[in-house]
Every structure is written in structure tokens, then in C-alpha cells.
From TrEMBL:
It comes from Mesorhizobium wenxiniae. InterPro entries: LysR-type_TF_proteobact-type, LysR_HTH_N, LysR_subst-bd, WH-like_DNA-bd_sf, WH_DNA-bd_sf. This is LysR family transcriptional regulator. Residues 6-63 form the HTH lysR-type domain. Belongs to the LysR transcriptional regulatory family. Keywords: DNA-binding, Transcription, Transcription regulation. Gene3D superfamilies: 3.40.190.290, Winged helix-like DNA-binding domain superfamily/Winged helix DNA-binding domain. The keyword Glycoprotein does not apply. GO terms for molecular function: DNA binding; DNA-binding transcription factor activity.
Length: 307
């Protein structure tokens, strides 16, 4: 093997193809042609002397040798990037790109503004913000940090609890004028509910009363949606009642376009967490963004301290 042919560029290409399982996806990510990706892989395999990937018409997978090489390559690339950061000192911390994934509505309404403030402080750091309510594979998608609402089970990631997202029952004045205002939780089945189709069990509304007692109320309606911003629009349009995160509707409540109903009965709060790819956690610019978000996120309406 001619070690001079094992370049960092070829190694990075191999790592991303191994993680994404697609030559075309990596070509789009890197901004190069698929033929360039193919050439990098061929040259790396020629230099190493063994096949690292197995290609079919549908997917690219690692060989046994490729799996072993991948584990070492990830560590090498991480060490190279950290060495560069340390050599550049404080300047190295404030350059490069971070990829972050966030729950869509929270990202549009609040996280994007925090990222703007972060980039004002560190103008040489680029941020690629991906908004989705789907649970993604951080490694496969090349994401450094993910902000997620709800319980998390991926123990392979570094987890940082950011807080609890308080929720309220809300409706528009027009809806309440037309349908009446519920006085007790048992009135809710007679109303139109705006439900999230991507949340299991949304046909039952869990509430906690003023004395800590718990209520489970049937919750139906003709409109279901899988995006928080669409639920917000449905509320303003008077389509029904919904349990909404405070941060989703705080401006509408302040403007009088929505009202809180049954204020003594609240849906349980939802944990807000940050997932960090372990291999990227030591990179200086990633640490900067992690700390910045952890410091600022408590300023978002309705985000309380972690439990």
C-alpha cells in the first residue's frame, strides 16, 4: 500500500458513504459529482488493498474490513479536526460549519433566532439547520447536534437535558363564541379538537388538575395534522381546541388572538433535550454552540428547568 494515497479527503468520503449508504447522497452533500465520490472510494480501496464497501443496485454497505477501517477512520478524522482547533487556538474555535437538526415549529419560531445571535457572536461559524419532526439518525445524516421534544431512547448519543416545555389548552375567541367555553375537562369531548397525527394517543387528552389529580379525556375532532405550525394556523382560524406548547402560541395569546381555557387543568410538560454526536462533542465550535443554546434556551416562553 502506498500510504500517500490514503488522503483525508478520500477517508472523509468513505466515512460519509459508509454512514449514509448512498453515493449520490454523499455527492450532493459534498457538492461534487457522483463520479468523484466513486473515484475517491476506488483510490482508497486500491491504497488500502482490500474492498471496504459492497455495492448493490439499492445500497452500499461496509465489508468486514470496511467496518474495522471505518471505526479507525472516524477517530483519525476527529483527532485531525481537534488538532487543527488546538493549533489555531481561539481562532480555530470560531471557524467551520455545524450541522443541527431541530423540531420544525420550534426551529422556525425560536431556535433560528438563537442561531442568528450565535453567528453574530461567531461570524466565521457556518450553521446548517435542518427542520424535521422525524427522528433521524444523526450519524447517517451527518448531524452534529439535534434538539428534540419528548422522551429519547438513543443511548449512543451524548444527552443534555435543556428543560421542560409547558403546554396549555387554547382556542380562539371566535371558536369559543360559537361553541362555548368548556368549564370542566368532561366538557371537552363535546368540542372540536385539533390533534397531532404524528403523536401516538392523541385521541386521549391527559390533564393534571389543581390538586394534582389526573384526568384522561376523550379528544376527537375533524382536523389532524403532523406539523405544529399548521396546528397553530388551525387554532387562529377557529377550527377547535388544542394542547399547545407555550412557545408555539405565546405571541398569539399576548395579541388576544387565542385564549387559555381550563387554566387549572394542564397537559403534562414535554422534555426538551439536546443530542450530541459523541465523535463531534470535542470539536471546539460544536462545544460553543452547545453551551450557547443551553444558556439561552431557558429564555424561550414556557421552557422550564430540567427535571
Amino acid at each position: 500500500m502506498d500510504r500517500s494515497d490514503v488522503t483525508l479527503e478520500r477517508m472523509r468520503t468513505f466515512v460519509r458513504v459508509a454512514e449514509r449508504g448512498s453515493l449520490s447522497a454523499v455527492a450532493r452533500e459534498l457538492g461534487v459529482g457522483q463520479s468523484t465520490v466513486t473515484r475517491h472510494l476506488r483510490e482508497l480501496e486500491d491504497a488500502v488493498g482490500v474492498p471496504l464497501l459492497s455495492r448493490t443496485t439499492r445500497r452500499v454497505t461496509m465489508t468486514d474490513e470496511g467496518s474495522r477501517y471505518y471505526a479507525d477512520a472516524v477517530q483519525i478524522l476527529r483527532l485531525v479536526e481537534q488538532a487543527g482547533d488546538e493549533a489555531r487556538g481561539t481562532r480555530g474555535a470560531s471557524a467551520g460549519t455545524i450541522r443541527i437538526s431541530c423540531t420544525a415549529a420550534l426551529g422556525v419560531l425560536h431556535i433560528s433566532r438563537l442561531i442568528f445571535a450565535f453567528q453574530d457572536r461567531y461570524p466565521d461559524i457556518g450553521v446548517d439547520l435542518s427542520l424535521t419532526d422525524e427522528r433521524i439518525d444523526l450519524v447517517r445524516e451527518g448531524v452534529d447536534i439535534a434538539l428534540r421534544l419528548g422522551p429519547l431512547t438513543d443511548s449512543s448519543m451524548k444527552l443534555r437535558a435543556l428543560g421542560q416545555s409547558r403546554r396549555l389548552l387554547v382556542a380562539s375567541p371566535a371558536y369559543l363564541a360559537a361553541r362555548g367555553r368548556p368549564a370542566v375537562p368532561q366538557d371537552l369531548p363535546d368540542h372540536e379538537g385539533i390533534r397531532m397525527s404524528n403523536i401516538a394517543g392523541s385521541d386521549t387528552l391527559a390533564l393534571q388538575g389543581p390538586g394534582g389529580e389526573r384526568h384522561a379525556v376523550p379528544f376527537g375532532g375533524r382536523f389532524r395534522v403532523d406539523h405544529g405550525l399548521a396546528a397553530r394556523e388551525a387554532l387562529v382560524a377557529g377550527r377547535g381546541i388544542a394542547p399547545a406548547h407555550h412557545w408555539l402560541v405565546d405571541d398569539l395569546l399576548a395579541a388576544g388572538r387565542l385564549e387559555v381555557i381550563l387554566p387549572d387543568y394542564t397537559p403534562p410538560p414535554i422534555p426538551l433535550s439536546m443530542l450530541i454526536l459523541p465523535e463531534r462533542a470535542g470539536i471546539a465550535r460544536v462545544r460553543l454552540l452547545v453551551d450557547f443554546l443551553a444558556e439561552r434556551i431557558g429564555g424561550i416562553p414556557g421552557i422550564g428547568k430540567p427535571r
